[in-house]
Amino acid sequence: MKNLVYVIPMAGLGTRFLRAGFTLPKYMLQVRGTTVFEHSLRSLPLELASKLVFVALKEHKEEHGLEAFLDGALRRLGCGARRELVLLDGPTSGQAATVLQARDCVPAGAELAIYNIDTHFKSAALAGVLAAPARKRDGVIGAFTLREVDPKWSFAALRPDGTVAATAEKEQISGNALTGLYHFTRAEDFFRVAAAALASCATTRGEHYVAPLYNALIAEGRSFSLDLAEVIVPLGTPEDLLKAEPRDF
Question: 0.90 cut: is pTM over it?
Answer without folding.
Answer: yes
